[in-house]
Amino acid sequence: YAGLEVELEKGVAAFNALRMAEEALDYARAELEQVRADEDFMRHVVEEMETLGLKADEEDTLAAERRLLILAVRLVGSLSEALDSLTSEDGAQIALRRSERALERSVDYAVGRFDEVLFTLQRAGAEAMEAVALLEELNREFNGDPARLAMVEERLFDLRSLARKHNTVVSALPALHEEFVERLAKIDSGENKLSELSRAVKV
C-alpha cells in the first residue's frame, strides 16, 4: 500500500499542477484578449505619431515662431527704413564721413583741438557700420524663407489635429506615444508567456 500512496500523492500533485497551469493559461488568455482589443488602434496611433516625429515643447516653439513670422512684414519695413537712414545719400554714414573730412582738411592748423571730435566721429562711423551689418543680417533672417510661415502653420495644424483626435493636448502626445509603445510591448511579451503556459499544460 505504501507504493500506491506515493503514486497517489504524485498523481494528486500532478493534477493540482495541471489545474494551476490551466488557470494561469486562462487568466493569461483573458488578459491578452483584453489588451488585444485595442492593439490595431494602438499600432496605428504609434505609427502615426512616429511618422509625425513628435518633439518636446514643439508647439510652444512653433507658435512663437509663427507670431514672429506674421510680424515679419512689419519688421522688415522697419529694418529697411533703418538701413536707408544709415546708408542712403543723406544717411548717417555719409553725413559722419563728410563731417570727418571737413575737419581733416584743417586738422594741421587746429593744434590738436580737433583730435577728440575726430576720434568721436570715427568711432561713430565704425558703430554705424556695425549697426548696418546687424540690420542687414536681421533683414536676411526675416526674408530668408518666404514659405516658412506656411510650413510652421501646417506643422501646428497637424500636431493640434492629432491632439484633438485623442482628446488631449499637444504637450501630452509624447507621453501617450510612450504609453502605447509599452502596452504593445506587453502584448508581445504576453504572446510568449501564453506559448510557454500552453506548452506547460500540454506536458
| Low-pLDDT stretches | none
Coarse structural class: mainly alpha
Q: Helicity, in percent? A: over 70%
The number of helical runs is 8
The total beta strand count reads 0
Q: Assess the beta-strand content as a share of residues.
A: under 5%
- Quick one: biggest sheet? none
Mean pLDDT: 80
Tell me the overall shape.
Answer: rod-shaped
Could you give the order of the helices and strands? HHHHHHHH
Alpha carbon gyration radius: 38 Å
Q: For the record, give the distance between the C-alpha atoms at the N and C termini, rounded to a whole number.
A: 28 Å
Please outline what is shown here.
The chain has helices spanning 2-36, 39-52, 58-70, 72-87, 92-104, 115-143, 148-165, 173-202.
Question: Care to describe what's here?
Answer:
There is one protein chain. This protein is mainly alpha-helical and 203 residues long. It contains eight helices and no strands. It has helices at residues 2-36, 39-52, 58-70, 72-87, 92-104, 115-143, 148-165, 173-202. Helix 1 (2-36) runs antiparallel to helix 8 (173-202) and helix 5 runs antiparallel to helix 6.
Characteristic key phrases:
8 helices, mainly alpha, 203 residues, rod-shaped
Which secondary structure elements does this structure contain, and how are they paired or packed?
Layout (H helix, E strand, L loop, with lengths): L1 H35 L2 H14 L5 H13 L1 H16 L4 H13 L10 H29 L4 H18 L7 H30 L1
